[in-house]
Amino acid sequence: QLSGKWFLVGMASRCSYLAEHSHQLEATTVTMTVLDGQSLAISTFRKLDRMCWEIRQHYLPAQAPGRFLLKGEGDCSKVDVVVGEADPSSFIILYYQKGRSISVKLYGRNSLVSDAVVDKFEQRARAVGLSEDVTYYFPTYGFCDSADEFHVLDGEL
Fold first, then answer.
1. Are 59 and 78 in contact (CB under 8 A)?
2. Which of 46, 114, 126, 140 would you call most buried, defined as having the most Cβ atoms within 10 angstroms of its Cβ?
3. Are strands 51-61 and 152-154 parallel, antiparallel or unpaired?
4. Is 156 contained in some domain?
5. What region holds the Lipocalin/cytosolic fatty-acid binding domain (predicted)?
6. CA distance 124 to 157
7. How many domains are contained in the chain?
8. In this structure, how many other beta carbons lie within 10 angstroms of the beta carbon of residue 58?
9. What does the CA dihedral 142, 13, 17, 43 come to, rounded to 10 degrees?
10. 37-62, pLDDT tens digit by residue?
């Protein structure tokens, strides 16, 4: 159900980098592929310095359905990923938790989603203590569809 192309619509996070660079947010798309019926291969396409990059990640299945684990370098960099709410035909809300830090992301099948979906996303962000001042929306134009072989990052960021 999660397979296919998604557009990153919004993100709620206390990440200081995001706050400092929010004026430079780039249109971002994600392609999800379900592997072996459980884990997810994620390809994120976005611009960095006007070049299209692809970032590849692998979400491993966790204990329960709708829960995944993103492993980085070392034990401290694991990220728990939880599907908060989804309508596979239109939107998905994902929680990312690393230690005590939590972020909420809204993806849409289109770069624009309904006001009702935005309201759900903002309610879920507020429920975990993330207010409008740490909620960011991404551009709806200028997407990358691919990256050349020299602009692919494998692994976890």
1. no
2. 46
3. parallel
4. no
5. 3-137
6. 24
7. 1
8. 16
9. -50
10. 788 999 999 988 888 999 999 999 98
Looking only at the bridges linking them, the beta strands covering 67-70 and 79-87 are antiparallel
Q: 139 with 7: CB under 8 angstroms?
A: no
Three-state secondary structure string covering the chain: CCCEEEEEEEEECCCHHHHHCHHHCCCEEEEEEEECCCEEEEEEEEEECCEEEEEEEEEEECCCCCEEEECCCCHHHCEEEEEEEEECCCEEEEEEEECCEEEEEEEECCCCCCHHHHHHHHHHHHHCCCCHHHEEECCCCCCCCCCCHHHEEECCC
Domain holding 66, by residue range, is 4-134
Q: Quick check: is 153 in a domain?
A: no
Look at the block and give the residue holding tokens 């939107």. 91
CATH number of the structural domain spanning residue 63: 2.40.128.20
**pLDDT tens string 84-102:** 999 999 999 999 998 889 9
Residues written for the chain:
157
Question: What is the reported pTM?
Answer: 0.89
Looking at residue 17, its amino acid is Y
